[in-house]
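ingest -> validate -> predict -> emit
validate: passed (alphabet ok, no gaps, 426 aa)
predict: started
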Amino acid sequence: MALLSGNRAEAWCAGVAAQAFGLTVTWLHPLAPAEDHAHQLNDAGADVLLVDVRRFAECGGALAAHVGGLRVVFTVGPADYGTDLLREAEHVGPSMARDVATPEGIASLSLAPPLIYALLDDPALRTADLASLELLLYGASAITPDRLAEGLDRIGGVFSQFYGQTECYPISLLRRTEHDPERPELLTSAGQPVTASTVAILDDEGNEVSTGNTGEICVRSPLAMNGYHRRPGLTEEVFAHGWLHTGDIGRVDDRGYVFIVDRKKDMIIRNGVNVFSRGVENALSEHPAVSQAAVFGTPDAVTGEAVNSSHRQFSCSISLGRTTHGPWPSIFERFSGTAESIVAQSGRHLITCPGGGTQAVPPVGPTTNRLPSTASPLVSPTFEPLARRWTGRPGQSPGRDLAVGEDRGRARCRRNHSTGRLSTER
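emit:
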């Protein structure tokens, strides 16, 4: 097989404001991760690899596995056979444990964090035979450290994390041997850059920050895309200063481990201090009454932005013992449904209608100081008053900040009526 660097392939990624758009890559893009995939598979000792061809980023791993002597089986949907299984969200059956503990014995498994939570919460896990499982790859969204520690305790040291995005995958890897309960700080890490990638933490002017300081995670890699399809302005923006800008805020320690702190657009500025929503979300998720948490800011006349809520008793009970962690939500909103993408990322640009079903709120132009009338039926009763008193700031949209909730701040809670469990919508 000859690989020509000029040959183009196409992929799709989740866009902004509920719009998906295309990007162009060379054939090296799906094949270049092969070395890192091969190391993972060799470490796991898997002998059969089953790949869902819809998972674009797994193609390189399939090539590496085949060259390394593994039998590779391709499928376009869920499979019920083989010793390696890659599942997506829509494939999950009523019992995660029964799906994983098949009679054939699964050697390798790939799950998004919410599916790992479902596996840990499945009562059948107590009696499931997972002796054959050698490798559990996870990624696509953040995993809470306490649940990862629970997984290591109950399932074993089989976890491995890939960090990346459609624009560049993978960027870094946290290997199985680095998932060490004796080094709990690594459980919050995205690992070290993969062989082909160089990672830098840059400030807003494109300057590299000193070790341990936060900034935007940027990468140079042959795994990176060529650009967004027919979007030259957006392409130029994301490749500013000669680096691919991931949109993630993070830091790199003196050992080269990457730590993701927040999404750049989700950072809240309160009293001139940066508040990273992910840290608050992780702390909220430690409470037994919360299964998932999403925190983003709202305009505040005193502090600039606030981390807000309506159920103060619930907020205070979570805050006990955590006062040094930072600002806490003062308002919690309950929603009747979830808004997660197929890769389990937060659907902050979606909210649930009172009558059921999830719809996108139309975006509002940056100079508009009111919400569009079409958004009114989608706004919850406790959400609407804040939207009405929006006064606007230059370059910001009330539709994005309040109704859409993509950029700034509240915690939204919902109750599962079948289990009685309270959770915040992510």
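The chain has a mean pLDDT of 63.
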